[in-house]
Design goal:
Low-confidence stretches: none
Helix content: 25-40%
InterPro entries: Ald_DH/histidinol_DH (IPR016161), Ald_DH_C (IPR016163), Ald_DH_CS_CYS (IPR016160), Ald_DH_CS_GLU (IPR029510), Ald_DH_N (IPR016162), Aldehyde_DH_dom (IPR015590)
Largest sheet: 7 strands, mixed
Number of domains: 2
Family: Belongs to the aldehyde dehydrogenase family.
Organism: Catenulispora yoronensis
Number of helices: 16
Distance between the termini: 70 Å
Keywords: Oxidoreductase
Strand order of the largest sheet: 14-15-16-13-12-17-18
Pfam families: Aldedh
Length: 484
Amino acid sequence: MDELQTHLFIGGTWTKASDGAEFSTLDPATGQRVGVCAQATAADVDLAVDAAREALTAPDWAGLTAAARARLLWRVADLIEEQADELAELETRDQGQPLGIAHGVSVTTAAEHFRYYAGWCTKIEGAVTPVSFPDTLHYTRREPVGVCALITPWNFPLMIAAWKLAPALACGNAVIIKPAEQTPLTTVRLVEILERAGLPAGVVNLLTGGPDVGRALVEHPGVDKVSFTGSTEVGREIVRASAGNLKRVTLELGGKAPSVIAADADIDAAVAGNLQGALLNSGQVCAAYTRFYVDRRRVDEFTEKLARAAAGLRIGPGLDPATQVGPVVTSHHLAEIDRHVRRAVADGAQLVTGGERAVTGDLERGNFYRPTVFAGVSDDMALVREEIFGPVLPVLAYDDPQELAVRANDTDYGLAAAIWTKDLSTAHRLAADIRAGAIFVNMLPIPDSAAPWGGFKTSGWGREMGKYALDVYTEVKGVWMHMG
């Protein structure tokens, strides 16, 4: 695959940045340049917002029937599937995730989101409400919230772009999508697919660039809504910056998902499941299992098996079919992961396996970190409290099952949690008591287009996916009609 040259997409036209500035994106497995992308300016942000505002009320979009919108979104899903191999390879080269994950999770899920929301286009309904005024009909309408800025992260760029774009378009909004500067390439391809599918000019606009582009969108008075996936720190900045015109804001932020391994759990199944749940995409998943609470009677067995399995995983570039753990996204992020590991050792955690870069042979060129397991960990360590976003797995013991919910909830985050047990009572009790937006029982933390996704506490505001996304991409209007 040749090095790519990409542009902005504004008002239906592919164009360079207004000042001609560009930036490079690198393959995290090799450090080689994958693409050169346009670096949007404040002037480009203004142009994109103007194009979206114009498209929002244009007859070829606002006048489109719900059934016609559905056909457009269904066509997008078909085109994603037609280009699945190319998209998966590009995702792997730009982001680093193993090709099997890029194909089986990222690309497949992106197509399914467009297909799922194509079905919702004809089912976005209002209601008739009995009111106390005589001879009065009251009904509600769901209307587009307006121009939406969709700001996506670098860990699953294609999939998360799809899960924002699909409901926003199903509800009739106009959008500006801004991918993370580390991994913009599959989003560019997705916008090309949207253009090919026949979306009217200006309905979807693409701005590539760094944090300044995102800030300009969040602060822009012509943007009605921001949907952001990323860190809690940036989420707080967005809340403050959106106050100017009281933008609607949806935030899917950080996580520190607990995984509870009950005394009755199948330990071998729990080890296998937690290893995958922790190391999916090299641990660069907001819902990754990142702190493991194991019954003290079984903690040594679990830790030994987990460490042995982690040490045996094949580390390598995502394009190698044998790879089980790929690189992390940038050299800067690699250094941050190592900083967390060094601090954990200094804090007294027992390093069981890993704890260093993988530099054997060709791995030295990339951002590879060995899966790392810690034992002897306490709840007050930074290792347990801070989001690391990498292949680091701390194991903690518990004595009393009654303490589990309290310990699992002792965090600022609340995105996801896992429970491993054969007992339905244990599963349902903990699922009710743990404060997180998604609870996974004996399974991996992979979202689905039909189910709500979002967090409690500092893990975010609002819900994406399922019918719940319709609430955040529409406004409800009440109509009062006196018939006297």
